[in-house]
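Fold this sequence, please.
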Amino acid sequence: MNLLTTIKGSNMENYFPKGWDLARIDECCSHQPGEIFDRQSFWHKDFNPVMCDDNFDFSVKMGHEIALAIKTARDRNEKLALILPVGPMSMYKWVVFFLREWNCDAKHCFCFNMDEWSDSDGNTLEPTNKGSFQYAMEQALYNPLGELTVPEAQRNFASKENLPLYAEKISNLKAEGAKLITVFGIGRCFHIAFWEPQFAEEYDSVEQWKAQTHRLGAKLNPMTIEQNALHSFKTRTTLVPAFANTVGPGLFLQSDWVIGGSDGSYERGMMWSGMSLWVALRYSPDMWIPGSFMPTLPGKLFFLKDLAGPLEPECN
């Protein structure tokens, strides 16, 4: 007896995006921890999952990977475009630590926040609002870097006015030789940024879906709202906006390198992102599962070892 056998006639029957194959999702999650490294046919040859023992290990390794990419571009006298998330966040203090330790400035970096809370028309929170992603990035990364920081004119936030300009800005940077790196987490409903799974219903083909560079006032999945209530709003669901501005696959799938992070594990064996990790790695590319495209790109996906499972019932 489980969700697959009891869903018919329940309140969950029409809850999930219609393109989800629940049996296939369940199969992705049925493997033993060591199998998480088994390479899949759709993985890019230079994509690799990286297991981390705990949150400290995760934060340091992911922060080092981002900082090293910034330093490498600086050493080569190249510009670097970075699509950056507000989640996971713990790596940013280590990005700051390593760049300051190396006395490496980030003045060659052009940063693009991947999303921001909004209303249905794409109007965003004020930058001084503690819930805004711009505020979070300034406090976690830009301000602590001090004199080494990214110039303000090269920091891009996903406002109604600026988000539609991302594609042209990134295209121009690539034309000048810049590489694009996307740093990402995988959402509870398998989204990347706030590009939600149900958006797939609007497109006639994967190619059309892949061409979408952004969306203003994206309608968020209920699973996304609850995820953020737990992790950003101290469980106060009523404080979470129901919409957001977000980059789309037309931008993050242009990445020359990706740096992913999956850190959704609590104490006593409880977690929220074990399924998200396994499905991203095993489902194979499907526009109803945005995270499934990330292993098709070169890069690394750092994850907490607890998320590898086994994903089996346990009372906590």
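The mean pLDDT is 96. The beta strands are 47-52, 80-84, 109-113, 115-118, 155-156, 179-185, 214-219, 243-247, 257-262, 299-304.
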